[in-house]
UniProtKB/TrEMBL annotation:
Keywords, comma-separated and alphabetical: Cell cycle, Cell division, Centromere, Chromosome, Coiled coil, Mitosis, Nucleus
Gene3D superfamilies linked to this entry: 6.10.250.1900
Stretches assigned to coiled coil: 31-62
A GO biological process held by the record: cell division
Similarity-based family: Belongs to the borealin family.
Domain of life: Eukaryota
Predominant location: nucleus
Subcellular location: Chromosome, Centromere; Nucleus
Positions of the Borealin N-terminal domain: 27-81
Keyword Nucleus: yes
A single Gene Ontology CC term: spindle midzone
Protein name, entry field: Borealin-2
InterPro entries the UniProt entry points to: Borealin_N, Cell_div_borealin
Amino acid sequence: MPSRRVKNRGSDPAQVRQSREMRHRRLALFIQQFEKEAQERMNELEAKLENMLATVDKVFKVELMKVPLALQKTRIGELFSEEDFSASDVSIAMKNESLEIHQTLRRTHSKIVQSTDSGSPVLKPSAKTSKVSSLSTNICQKEGANRF
């Protein structure tokens, strides 16, 4: 049988002081390590921020080069002074004239139907899937006709 632990009933003041000092040193080292890791993380985040800002600047310059030269040289004050449009009118016009279709995408589950002829399940497309596929077929046919 293992021997029983014996509790130290009479704590030596020197031992208590030494254990406190050891705890204080450990806590100080822990805090130093934590601050060092936090500083490293801040440096990493600042580097990422600088990289992202540089990327945004490059993209802005590329998009600015796509704008016609006459529009590039036009001042903003001239654009606003010619015609008075409210912000809501501009946003409505942009939505109406947008070439992109703004629809939210939804996941539809196809139904699995058990075939009576064979034991393997047969996938039956849902109604939404068939509408999308027929719409995309019509668009492709129209684009093919417009190319020639």
